[in-house]
Specification:
It is found in: Golgi apparatus membrane. The chain is globular. With 208 residues, the chain is α+β, with helices and mostly antiparallel strands. The protein has a single domain, classed as yeast vps74-n-term truncation variant domain like (yeast vps74-n-term truncation variant fold, Orthogonal Bundle), CATH 1.10.3630. Helix content is 56%, strand content 13%. The longest helix has 18 residues, at 28-45. The chain has ten helices and six strands.
């Protein structure tokens, strides 16, 4: 049996890896928004975050591995979308470094076009990504929603919100729209916030 990372952000990072192309399918702010959404979702599912007036609030005391609860506690009330956007690029670096230290991935420094520095990521054991895919696929097509593993349900909700074609190609997102909606409702507010943030970003790009 293949062991997978325990944290939801780490799982979503690996799910964004394209095994066929041997590289990350998403990067920059978009991946950061998904990872921030994953961290918020993990806290929400574990009861460490709650919701009041459609805004996240601190819940039951506990671990705060990425410091989000502390950020929310020290700030005035803000929307889920605000917390999805905040420090998104830094979140990518944090989760990437976490996975590298744990031996899940290998990171190398490269230069795009020989000029621009970038990080090249390689997953060490493809079976880990395949196991995560299997969990998401089972959540999408298998047992009743109420009986789906909460992290597998969250993986589907976040992948759909973030447009991760490695997990859910566009055709599958259309075909399973109702099921995705049910899994998203079970997962909490963060995936919907990710979807809205990306929608706003794409609308801004389209308008020039």
């Amino acid at each position: 049996m293949v062991n997978v990372p325990e944290s939801l952000p780490a799982r979503m990072f690996l799910l964004a890896y394209d095994l066929r192309k041997g590289r990350m399918s998403k990067g920059g702010a978009r991946l950061g928004w998904v990872l921030r959404g994953a961290a918020l979702t993990e806290l929400y599912l574990d009861g460490r975050l709650g919701e009041e007036r459609r805004r996240p609030v601190p819940g039951t005391p506990g671990d705060d591995p990425y410091g989000l609860v502390a950020q929310i506690r020290e700030s005035r009330p803000r929307s889920w979308q605000h917390w999805v956007r905040k420090d998104a690029k830094a979140m990518v670096e944090t989760v990437r470094d976490e996975l590298a230290r744990g031996g899940w991935i290998r990171v190398r420094d490269r230069r795009a076009l020989g000029l621009f520095p970038r990080k090249e990521v390689a997953v060490k054991d493809p079976r880990i990504v395949k196991a995560l895919w299997g969990g998401a696929s089972s959540a999408l097509r298998g047992r009743p929603v109420a009986h789906v593993n909460s992290y597998d349900a969250a993986a589907v909700a976040l992948a759909a919100a973030g447009g991760l074609d490695t997990v859910l190609p566009k055709a599958d997102r259309r075909r399973h729209k109702r099921r995705i909606g049910e899994l998203t409702a079970r997962t909490g507010p963060a995936p919907t916030a990710v979807h809205k943030v990306i929608g706003q970003y794409e609308a801004a790009l389209a308008s020039g």
